[in-house]
Design goal:
This protein has about 80 residues and is mostly beta strands. The protein contains one helix and seven strands; from the N terminus they run E-E-E-E-E-E-H-E. The structure holds zinc ion. Zinc ion binds next to loops.
């Protein structure tokens, strides 16, 4: 069984993100979702996580995702 973390944004939107991914968001276009959906590159010192919608990088530290509250599983 996969561990799923649930995130709630201040505006009420909820996202379920399976382990080991995390909630990502894009400051450029507003996309929010699991980091599973993001592209990454690893040819630099560290991988850039980029938005699957507009391909801007920095989705791993998007401002929207940082406002989300992660809820513990309670099942
Ligand atoms: Zn984007």
């Amino acid at each position: 069984m996969t561990d799923v973390a649930r995130y709630t944004l201040p505006d009420g939107r909820e996202f379920a993100v399976p382990d080991p991914y995390y909630l990502a968001s894009c400051d450029a276009c507003g996309w929010v979702g699991s980091s599973e959906e993001c592209g990454t590159d690893y040819w630099g010192d560290c991988g850039d996580v980029f938005c699957p919608k507009c391909y801007s990088d920095g989705a791993d530290c998007g401002q929207v995702a940082e406002t989300a509250v992660m809820e513990p599983r309670n099942d």
